[in-house]
Design goal:
44% of the residues lie in helices and 14% in strands. The chain is α/β, with parallel strands linked by helices. The chain folds into two domains: 104 residues, Alpha-Beta Barrel (TIM Barrel), CATH 3.20.20; 86 residues, no CATH class. The strands form two sheets. A five-stranded parallel β-sheet has the order 1-2-3-5-6. A three-stranded antiparallel β-sheet has the order 4-8-7. Helix 4 crosses helix 11. It starts with 9 loop residues before the first strand and ends with a helix.
Length: 242
């Protein structure tokens, strides 16, 4: 890495980290690996990861099939046995203090939050997209491979794409086989729709936690509210089991 580059970490996901890990570690840059299976976690540990992000299928964008609730503690158990100094972050469906508290209870050291900050005031998210998300609930997201096939983007079969339903997804989300057989059929038209901001075609990429997003707030307010709520939830939980 050049003298002017001083990244705080290298964050990798979707594929083997080996090709990039050595460069980062040689430069004393911590390696974060987002994982969707236990096999991915083992591979990340072999590559020297300092932080594991256990991403559940509730997450927006590309992801795997494991659900956050059982996946995070399974990874926590693996790290406790094999690499207890490696930190664990939970991801997928976490947008408020309840999700943070639950993640800590599952054995995570913290959380990685996507959709909630995607809809923060400081984010570059188009207002039309955030407005759609704020008006939606978690039932209105769908995880599918059809979108990647239609737009001609090759992804490994183990990963699919969670987006908000729109006219295109209402038509194609459940027709994954047909979309794969017609790979790239909408590559040009999809890119044109994305450029002009046509959200009936172009994807609004959010996770199931979209149903917990009700306003576009400053990031600092999101953090402070989430932490305060988590403290309240954890204290209430402690009283219930005491």
């Amino acid at each position: 890495m050049g003298d002017r580059q001083a990244p705080k970490c290298l964050f990798l996901s979707f594929g083997s980290p080996k090709n990039f890990a050595r460069t980062a570690l040689d430069a004393n840059v911590p390696l974060f690996c987002q994982c969707q299976t236990v096999g991915h976690v083992r591979e990340a540990l072999d590559a020297g990861a300092s932080v594991i992000v256990a991403q559940g299928a509730e997450a927006g964008g590309h992801g795997g099939r494991r659900s956050t609730l059982p996946f995070v503690p399974e990874v926590a158990d693996l790290l406790a046995k094999r690499c207890p100094d490696v930190l664990l972050l939970a991801a997928g469906g976490i947008a408020d203090g309840r999700g943070l508290a639950a993640s800590l209870a599952l054995g995570a050291d913290g959380v990685l939050v996507g959709s909630r900050f995607w809809a923060a005031e400081e984010a570059l998210t188009p207002s039309a997209a955030s407005a759609r998300a704020i008006a939606a609930d978690g039932d209105q997201t769908v995880r599918t491979t059809a979108l990647d096939s239609l737009r001609g983007v090759p992804w490994p079969e183990e990963f699919s794409f969670r987006v908000l339903r729109n006219r295109l997804m209402d038509e194609w989300a459940d027709r994954e086989g047909e979309a794969a057989a017609d790979f790239g059929a909408m590559k040009r038209s999809y890119n044109e729709a994305r450029i002009r901001g046509d959200l009936d075609v172009a994807a609004t990429i959010v996770g199931e936690a979209v149903g917990l997003i009700h306003a576009r707030l400053p990031a600092a307010d999101i953090v402070s509210t989430m932490v305060a709520e988590a403290e309240t939830v954890l204290a209430r939980g402690a009283r219930l089991v005491s």
